[in-house]
Amino acid sequence: MTQTILIVGASRGLGLGLVAEHLKRGFDVIATVRKTGDEPALKALPGSDRLTIHHLDVTSDADIARLAAALPDPIDVVFINAGISGPKSVVAATADELNAAMQANVFGPIRLAHALADRVREQTGVLALMSSIMGSIAENTSGGMEVYRATKTAQNSFARSLWLGSPRARGVTVLSVHPGWVKTDMGGAGADIDVDTSVSGIADQLKAHAGSHAHRFIDYSGREIAW
């Protein structure tokens, strides 16, 4: 049976890479982008005949409702990849900048996750969110990027509360995934790994954790990250 994955935030970087990787693995892929101009790179991928594209801004309740109503049921994997780096300093940032970071990195993705949680396949389904090792309080030994760190910490906390609701009752696994330090627009050219390495590892972890009935904070290689 062909499996279906929804990848939110798929226009470039890791999102685009996750679409390419899952098409290669034979999935039917549903991908979201924010605007029509983001579609060509997706449509050019091998296997794009198994690709469906929707438009979504995760900070829009209307967009979330529209997407949820349009999706097939059930979905085997939902991967929510959305976020911005935000301001570097909580002191120097404006209130609007801080709010934008929280909306894009925390409230939007988590509200979307709640809207889709009951659409994920019971017992073997996986609902994953793109987190970051920078959201780990225990592993923060350098400081810096304090707003981004806090948004990912908050997202992890909301993900745990989400899992403790209907996903746990329905046997759905929730993952908070650190992709590694990746050579993307956000990660920069000096990062440790390329997109292909990250997305291949993430896809392996989505498969490996199906049916584990837990909420875990892991990286692309499967390493457990301290909260």
TrEMBL record:
Short name of one Pfam family: adh_short
Molecular function via GO: oxidoreductase activity, acting on the CH-OH group of donors, NAD or NADP as acceptor
Highest taxon of the lineage: Bacteria
Signal peptide segment: none
SUPFAM superfamilies reported in the protein's UniProt record: NAD(P)-binding Rossmann-fold domains
Coiled coil: none
UniProt xrefs under InterPro entries: NAD(P)-bd_dom_sf, SDR_enzymes, SDR_fam
Protein name: Short-chain dehydrogenase/reductase SDR
Originating species: Brevundimonas subvibrioides (strain ATCC 15264 / DSM 4735 / LMG 14903 / NBRC 16000 / CB 81) (Caulobacter subvibrioides)
